[in-house]
Every structure is written in structure tokens, then in C-alpha cells.
Amino acid sequence: MIVIFNAQIYVNQGRVFSEVTMDRPIGNRAISFSCALFLLITAPAVSTVFAGASAINCRAHDGKCILPIGGETVTLEIMPRPVTAMQDSTFSVTLSGNPPERAPYIDLGMPAMKMGPNQIKLKPVGNGVYKGTGVIVRCKSGRRTWFANVTVPGRGEVKFVFDVIY
Ligand SMILES: [Cu+2]
After folding, report:
1. Measured in angstroms, how far is the CA atom of residue 7 from the centroid of ligand 1?
2. What residues does the ion ligand 1 have nearby, CB within 5 Å?
3. Are residues 124 and 151 in the same domain?
4. How many distinct helices (H) and strands (E) make up the chain?
5. pLDDT digits (tens, 9 = 90+) for 20-58
6. Containing structural domain, residue 101
7. pTM
8. Contacts of 47 (CB under 8 A, 6+ apart)
9. Do residues 83 and 147 share a domain?
10. Where are the alpha helices (DSSP H) in the chain?
11. From ligand 1's centre to the CA of 118, what distance in Å?
């Protein structure tokens, strides 16, 4: 119930924010207040989960992205491109080195926002490649920056931050 309640507050904040920007461009004070209030409400809840790593580090529209993990690499590819919300997307993760003890998985979210849980389970398809299907939802705030946090059991996790199309 707490999660649903938070989501509702967030949606309402998003609507207020959108209306102010579109209808009253002069209302900078109102916009700032709306943002500040939103951050105030969500910051304590998300600060530990989403600390850091909010800058875009993956051009997912253009192709594969690679991040280091230990002495190995994690490669992420999201298809189809351009990466678009509210449709089935295939997430492919390629791991270098020895296979991990269990298959990696992805948690989708947005930097500095508390979104609902959205985990993608991946299955091995051979040659260090793991695939799964998921849906990036549309954020009511209008923000388009999402992350795919890839957890590799026994090895760690990496966070790909990218823009999507709404
Ligand atoms: Cu959001």
C-alpha cells in the first residue's frame, strides 16, 4: 500500500509540473517549488538506492554499450532501436570471461526517481549472451532518462544510463 500511495503522489506531482510548464512559462517560482517538493518527498526514500551514476553513459539508440566489471566487461544491447517506451524490448547482455554462477538480471529504473520495481530475468543463449524481454514504461514527469542496472551474481553490478523515446 505504501508503494501505491507514493506512486500516486508522484503522478500528481508530474501532472502539476507538466501543466505549469506548458500553460504558464512565467511561473518559474511555481515550477521550482514543484520540483523541490517532489525531490523533498522522494529524496529520503531513494537516496540510498540511486546514489550517484545518473549521467548518461550509454547511447542505446545507436547500438551496444559496454561497461567494465572487475577485469571483465558487460555489454548491453536493447532492441528494437530507437529504444522506445511502452513496447516489448529485448535486452541482450554479453559477459566476457568465465560464466557467472547464475544468470545476470536487469533492474530498470530512473535516476533520482522512485519508480515501481521492473526486473528483467535473462536466459543464457550461448557464447556468454543472455537475453530477456521487458517494457520501459512512460514516466509521467516527461523525463526520458532511464537506467538498466545489470547484476552479475558473484561479480557485481553495473548501471547503464540512457535516453528512451516516449
Ligand atoms: Cu520517472
Report:
1. 10
2. 110, 113, 139
3. yes
4. 2, 9
5. 222 233 333 333 333 333 443 444 444 334 445 589 999
6. 65-163
7. 0.69
8. none
9. yes
10. 2-23, 28-46
11. 12
